[in-house]
Design goal:
Shape: elongated
Order of helices and strands: HHHHH
Radius of gyration: 14 Å
Distance between the termini: 11 Å
Helix content: 55-70%
Largest sheet: none
């Protein structure tokens, strides 16, 4: 998950500095992939634990990052930077 979080920095740089559409599209694709990593992690853990409510309480920040850094919300602000947290 740390490796996926490190991909966010170059993606943000490319998204804001690229002038060619292919680089922006590539950055968008990588952005979605880096978002899928914590989402899959959260989904797998929710299926494996016996007490989902207790797990969500203990993994609250992780769930917050998954929800708040949804790539479609990129137009709202820089919530994607929360993935580095």
């Amino acid at each position: 998950m740390i490796v996926a979080a490190l991909f966010v920095l170059p993606v943000v740089v490319v998204e804001f500095s690229a002038s060619e559409l292919r680089w922006v599209n590539l950055a968008t694709g990588v952005d979605w992939l880096t978002w899928l990593d914590p989402l899959v992690d959260l989904a797998v853990m929710l299926t494996l634990v016996s007490d989902r409510e207790a797990y969500l309480k203990s993994a609250g920040p992780d769930a917050f990052v998954v929800v708040s850094s949804f790539p479609v919300l990129a137009t709202v602000g820089s919530s994607r930077m929360l993935r580095l947290w």
